[in-house]
Structure formats: structure tokens, C-alpha cells
Amino acid sequence: TFDLGTMLLAMLGAAERQFTPAYWWPEDRSWVVWTDWDLEGTKVFGSHDLVQSLRNHPNIETLNWFMP
User: Beta strands 32-36 and 41-45: pairing type?
Assistant: First the structure.
């Protein structure tokens, strides 16, 4: 477990490149984030509202990724 705010502040202040954990989610498991550090990409799985809010955020680049 980790505190997201603490982790992000530590990563932003680091002199060398830092990486997030590969998989992370809240205790209720309502969403999951998967970071592929060597491809520099992240996938977010969650509710429709969560995905829409990320897609609509002005500072986040998103791609449509539909799986059959």
C-alpha cells in the first residue's frame, strides 16, 4: 500500500526518472491503473464516468482502446 499524494510528490521532486507501481487500485477495487513503464503508457480500467472524466481532462492525452 502507499499514499498516492506522497508518492506523486516524491516522484515529481526526484532528480532521476521514477516509475509508478505496475498495477494499483483502491481498497474497494472500483478501478485499476496499469502502467507499462518501458512503453511509457498507462491503461485505466473503471466505470464509464471515470473514463469519460479522464478523456475530457484538458491535460491528459487519451486514446480509444476497445477490446472485443
Answer: antiparallel
Task: Say yes or no to pLDDT of 33 above 80.
Answer: yes
DSSP string, 37-50: TTTTEEEEE--HHH
pLDDT of 57 > 80? The answer is: yes
d(CA 36, CA 65): 15
CA distance 43 to 38: 13
pLDDT given at position 19: 64
Could you tell me which residues are beta bridge partners of residue 43? 34
Q: Please, are residues 23 and 34 in contact by the beta-carbon 8 Å criterion?
A: yes
Separation between Cα atoms, residue 32 and residue 48, nearest integer Å:
13
